Amino acid sequence: MAYDLKDFTAQEKIKLLAGQDTWHTEDFNGRLYKVKVSDGPIGLRTPAYNEKTDKWEDLPAVAYPSTQVLSQTWDKEIAYKTGEFLADDCIEKGVDVLLAPGVNIKRNVLCGRNFEYFSEDPYLAGVMAREYVSGVQAHNVGTTVKHYCANSQERCRFWVSSEVDERTLREIYLEPFRIAEEAQPWAVMCAYNLVNGVRMSEHKKLYSLLRDEFKHGDRLIMSDWSAVQDRAASLKAGLDLEMPYSVDGYNRLMQAYKSGEITEEEIDACAKRVLDFIEKCERTSQKRKIQSTQEERLQGALRVAQEGIVLLKNDGVLPINSGKKVSVIGHCAEYYTSGGGSSRVVPLTNPKPLHEALKDTLKGSEVTFKSLYEKHENFYVAVNEAYGKDVAIVCVNNDAGEGWDREGMKLNKNQEMLIAETAKLNEKVVVIIYGGAPIDMSDWIDSVSAVLWAGYPGEMGSQAIANIISGKVNPSGKTTESFPYTLADSIAEYSHADFMKSVYEEGLFVGYRLYDGENTAGLQTLFPFGYGLSYSEFDYGNLKCERVKEGVKVSFDITNISNIAGDEIAQVYVREVNPKVIRPYKELKQFARVSLKGGESKRVELLLDMHAFEYYSTALDCWTHTPGKFEILVGASVEEILLQQTVEIE
Ligand code: BGC
Q: Which of 327-331, 491-495, 524-528 shows the lowest mean pLDDT across its residues?
């Protein structure tokens, strides 16, 4: 139905500027279509009233792997497909708009929500988010790209001001939002924090940039839940919808309207965008059709985990052949592990414990399981399980969640001790880590044979891990964030120095940009950005870079020189040879995931557009490049550059 602003009184229009409740827009008793929004990003979290328990409870839905694991696939198609599946989950539960994806940059390794975000690299985060958004919206369900912007820590999230210089803001923190806008998300959600002293729910300058430059135009900007402090100030800035409903917000607007502090014109600008949003949801709701079964979506979740889990270390113990005695130790093998907070999903199925999945997958092997290591008296019973086995698989987890940052990067003492003691009894220890962000492995990594980064692998995670361990699936995920060697090798500590201000003093040197090149501070990573092992081996060759109208066409060969089929993720970085302004040593500008049978070779062709060579000039107020030489660097990780060629950009 087409709605007309003229049919609403000023008071009604003000009512429209906030939700009706926690998850719906105002509908004036059926006069308007009632839009339902739900979290995101890892699966659908939609609450429903349960008469039996007299409580609001989250309905079960497919629990996909975390956004971190999704990003580790480096697979645009799978990001799109996950979006499509999520849309079907939404349609099934009558949800119009998903409150996802989150595209914040993983600046601080301790940030509690890093598992909900894609990467420390703005290009990768933006591209994966764009595909995700396109996938959801292709099924006529909306998305909400969040949290706009520079929201890279949970500590003091309602009050902290992210103090970022303009160039860094543009090149690092705004860039994923800019790229995601190419898919025209129906909404953007503002962050809780302040940026350079101004609350993001009132940030007129950054809203104008989003609408005008990034072409968000008249699409919706909504608040994060209770992120609005002064509703009149946020309205003036252009925040359309306050979520959820708040009496204070409504009263503040009424008072400001009556006193002339805000004009009807200002109210209309936001109310019109809210009406358009409602209208769009109503219109598209009629076109929605579920296109996948729940089983297909579960298989989709399995595929993300299989492609996204990263093999970090392997001395040859993996894959485990059949006919082996294998012990699985650690309680997290038994349970579904995920991050906490608004993205937590109640899984659709009863997730299979890892040892059960291994029993089914490692046919002909003997798999035993001991969980209870936390209580002291049981600790050695669990450890003893490793004795006399061919392989001991130790499962450890690291909690992360919304609203708090981790205190450190290490596993808890019990888990570290479990690994150490098991390694004394068995020469072949495989550690499986469930977690949301890098951990410090410095104390134990040398004593184990293999490490598999499972992340939060979703409800199909056990099967994915079992398939990788058995070799049924060849691991292919690569890290999308640097794993600092210890906390002291990261910027976390000084970014937590002050509760009220988080000074982004490292500027552009976030993530791998900090460790790459000269790295005068001598900071170390345990695993670099873009790193991951496979059971195959790949060879790169024949790089060709050709200047074309749109930029530079890059092509090269990748050959699987093993006899095991596998996927390789190739990364293309760009480095300005003699920059006139300070620039990171090199930056990711393209990537490709390639499937290769044993012995097979494929030519990869990628385009670097002109933006790949640009930096943001605060002197000129625009993106620009300096004519001159640029190196095109092709590699298997940021630290493993295998091919390079210099091009001249005029
Ligand atoms: C989170 C958002 C989420 C919202 C609704 C907030 O606390 O920051 O990401 O979408 O709650 O659950």
A: 491-495
The residue with tokens 């009863």 is: 350
The alpha carbons of the chain give a radius of gyration, in whole angstroms, of: 25
User: What crossing angle do the helices spanning 354-361 and 461-470 adopt, rounded to 10°?
Assistant: 40
Using a cut of 0.85, tell me whether the model's pTM lies above it. Answer: yes
- Write down the pLDDT at residue 520: 78
The C-alpha atoms of residue 370 and residue 334 are separated, in whole angstroms, by 10
Report in angstroms the alpha-carbon separations of 46 from 27, 369, 449: 19, 35, 42
Please tell me the distance between residue 122's alpha carbon and the centre of ligand 1 in angstroms: 22
Nearest CA to ligand 1 atom 12: 342
pLDDT recorded at residue 377: 58
| pLDDT value of residue 372 | 62
Q: Specify the pLDDT at position 376.
A: 54
Spatial contact of 278 and 42, defined as CB atoms under 8 Å apart? no
Q: Which residue has the tokens 């002293």?
A: 197
How many angstroms separate the CA atoms of 517 and 519, rounded? 6
pLDDT digit string, tens, across residues 280-289: 999 999 999 9
Give nearest CA residue, ligand 1 atom 3.
Answer: 342
Is any atom of ligand 1 closer than 6 Å to the C-beta of 146?
yes
- Model pLDDT for residues 393-442, shown as the tens digit of each residue: 999 999 999 999 999 999 999 999 999 999 999 999 999 999 999 999 99
**Cβ of residue 116 lying under 6 Å from some atom of ligand 1:** no
Distance 100 CA to ligand 1 centre (A): 9
251 beta partners: none
Residues in the chain: 650
With residue 462 as reference, give the H or E element that holds it. helix 461-470
* Residue 491's pLDDT band (cuts 50, 70, 90): confident
The Cα 382–Cα 576 span in angstroms is 54
Q: What is the distance between the alpha carbons of residues 12 and 26, in angstroms, rounded to a whole number?
A: 10
Tens digit of pLDDT for each residue in 563-585?
999 999 999 999 999 999 999 99
- Give distance in angstroms: CA of 255 to centre of ligand 1: 28
State mean pLDDT over 48-57: 92
Catalytic residues: 224
Looking at residue 404, the DSSP 8-state letter turns out to be -
Q: Look at residues 328, 299, 569, 637 and name the one whose alpha carbon lies nearest to residue 452.
A: 328
Ligand 1 centroid from CA 214, angstroms = 23
Q: Which helix (H) or strand (E) element contains residue 58? A: strand 55-58
From the centroid of its chain, how far is CA 402?
14
The preferred substitution site among 224, 242, 243, 344 for testing ligand 1, maximizing ligand atoms within 8 Å of CB, is: 224
